[in-house]
Amino acid sequence: MDKTAASKPELAAKPAGQPGHGPTILTAARAGINIMRLDFDVLFEVMQWTVDRRTMSRLMRTCRALHSKGIPSLLHSQVHVDNRRLHSFCLFMTADNSRCQYLRNVYFHLKEPCHASKDLDAILGIIQNASNLKSLRLTNEMLESDDRFPLAFAALQTVEDLVLDTYGKAAADMLGDLESPLRKADITFRAGEDKEELYPTDFMEALANACETLEEIVVSNVHWGASTYGLQFPEVVSLKIKNYDHVDGEGLMFAFPKLRKLHTEHACFDEDAERLVIDSLDDFQKIRDVSLETQARNGSSWDSLDELSGGLLFLYCLGITCPTRELKVLIDEPSRLHWLEVLLSPTKPKNLAISCDEMNAAQLKNVVSLLPTSVQELELFVCLEEHVKLTKRVNASIVNSMRSLVPQITHLDLTIEQDAPYMSFNNQKMVDFGTRIAEAIPTLRYIYIRMMAGLCLIKNEHSWTIERPEDGVVQLKSAERIALLSTSKKRIECEKSMWEEYGFE
Known about the structure:
- With about 500 residues, the chain is an alpha/beta fold.
- The chain has helices at about 1-5, 25-30, 40-50, 55-60, 65-75, 85-95, 115-130, 140-145, 150-155, 170-175, 205, 225-230, 250-255, 270-280, 280-300, 310-320, 335-345, 360-370, 390-400, 425-440, 490-500, and strands spanning about 80, 105-110, 135-140, 160-165, 185-190, 215-220, 240-245, 260-265, 305-310, 325-330, 350-360, 375-385, 410-420, 445-455, 460-465, 475-480.
- α7 links the parallel β2 and β3.
């Protein structure tokens, strides 16, 4: 037994904390071993580290002992219950009520309420006996299936990670009575297109019951006003807000005193606010001035931030004055570039990402010239104006812009998109372009360049490390793309999957 294991190292179980990478039936078969001849204690260990449901199901069907031992492992991974699977899930769980204690991660993905009384009674019993549930994902439709559900879910004592895909009165009732010590909450507040379906207007009020334990919050379609309620979330270190319609820097800094990561996406100003953006930028200056005055008066500003991202308008109004390690800014209007300098001066980011819409080469040079000397790693995404093409003159202007970069830049990630039906950049031109940029930035050690023709979803990309021998001739060596910001790694992986899945060039 030991000799076999020693001669087949691929069968060795991985250390604790690494599920999903241990032995499976497939690896055993490839090694020429009949897994069913192993002792039961070894098979139990194999089952503990097998997360593939098909493999687990095959093992559990071999005998009663393995069937019994496999249930905990089967239920430890995420259990996905939709309208189609609901009845079979109830039958499986109610066959032995002790199974409920093994549930760790459940996703009730009901797109419409359930009306089968037997299934509703079964679900209620499962909820009440899920004594070790850690992660829960729900829809408002699930909670609306039975009047007993909101209170039953609220009574759970062990949930740390809660996701609400849709929100409504039932979800509001559940959060209002919540007893679990939530550490992470991810909530989409608007259940539909109608603004009347927004419950309530303030996400902080909705999460008030968990304000002492929450560490990470992700919310969508929200309004905030914590300063009105005097509410604080003393342990929250990460906040992501998507689709918001208000700017309240004073409220954020008061409500989240220990915040380290703040990410915002997609400001959704209503019609009145939109007119303010166009006709009266002075009003946004007033918002910033109030935030700065409050910080000075109350000493409520953050000491520093690890990550900060959002549109330039929002970040400017927020009035952040603390050092920030990673900063990501969307500039959707080149006329507001002077705000960028105001933002960068106090934050002094080391890693900086800037996305620019509808720009020409001259405006790009202005952006680059505003960067503080603290920046060492830079991501630039530039969408050229509609009439601007990647001609030799434009390319030379872009290279010339790079000469304005601060001398400390060591890593550059540059994407240039043109709204054109073709792209004339072949591989050799990419190498020449990269070489000229490397020559323009003497401290550069790594460069990634991507040229895109947006209309046709065509791209040409290369990444290199840069060597500078004593003769002074710059040499580019092909390398894997590097994520310069913490938030960039997932985006790069998603982009790669998309291009591979759809077969884009």
